Amino acid sequence: MSNHWVTKLEWVLFDADDTLFHFDAFSGLSLMMQAYGLGFSEQEYQQFQALNQPLWVLYQQGDIQADELKVRRFTALGQRLGVEPAVLNRQYLQAMAQVCPPLPGAIELLQRLKGQKRLGIITNGFTDLQQVRLEKAGLQDHFDLLVISEQVGAAKPNPRIFQHALEQMGQPDPSTVLMVGDNPQADIAGGRQMGFYTCFVQHLGKQLPAGIQADLTVKTLTELLPLF
Question: CB count, 10 Å around CB of 136?
Answer without folding.
Answer: 15
